[in-house]
Amino acid sequence: MTAQKGSAFLLKIGDGAQPPAYATVAGLRTTQMSINGDTVVVTHKESGGWRELLSGAGTRSVSVSAGGIFLASEAEAAVRAHALAGTIDDYELSFEDGERLRGRFLVQRLDYAGDFNGERTYTLQLESSGAVVPA
To answer: Where are the domains positioned within the chain?
Structure first.
C-alpha cells in the first residue's frame, strides 16, 4: 500500500446530461469526505449488557467539504448556480488510485472570502441525496 497525494483527490460536477460527463471543480486546495451512518440499536435482555446493532439498517450519508482559490471556471459557476437554486446535481469524487465515487448532492453551504491584497477563496459543503456508489 502506498501513500496517495491529496492533490489527486478531486471533486467533479456533472453536466446535467444523462449519463453525465464530469468536470473538475477547479482551484480546490483541500477536499474532505465523511461517510456517516445512523445506527439502529436492537439491544435486549439477553444481550449480556452489550449493545447490539442491526446491520444494514439506519440512514447513511456522505458529506464533502472543499475549499480553494476562485478561478471563475464553468464548474465553479455550476456549483454556485445549484447553491442559489437549492437544486441537487451529480458529483464525482476521484482518487489517485483510480477509485471514483458518484452520487447526487445538495450544496449545503457555499462561502466566499477575500483579502484586500490576496486571492478570492471559497469553501463549500455538499450533502448526499440518495446512494453514493463506486463508479
So the answer is: 6-134
* 78, 89 Cβ separation under 8 angstroms: yes
**Cα separation of 94 and 130, whole Å?**
18
**CATH class given for the domain over 6-134:** few secondary structures
Q: Per-residue DSSP letters for 70-90?
A: ----HHHHHHHHHHHHT-EEE
Per-residue pLDDT of the chain (135 residues; tens, 9 = 90+): 688 877 788 999 999 999 999 999 988 899 999 999 999 999 999 999 999 999 989 999 999 999 999 898 999 999 999 999 999 999 999 988 899 999 999 999 999 999 888 889 999 999 999 999 999
Q: Are 19 and 10 in contact (CB under 8 A)?
A: no
Sheet strands (E) in 25-99: 28-37, 60-69, 88-94
Q: How far apart are CA 39 and CA 57, in angstroms?
A: 7
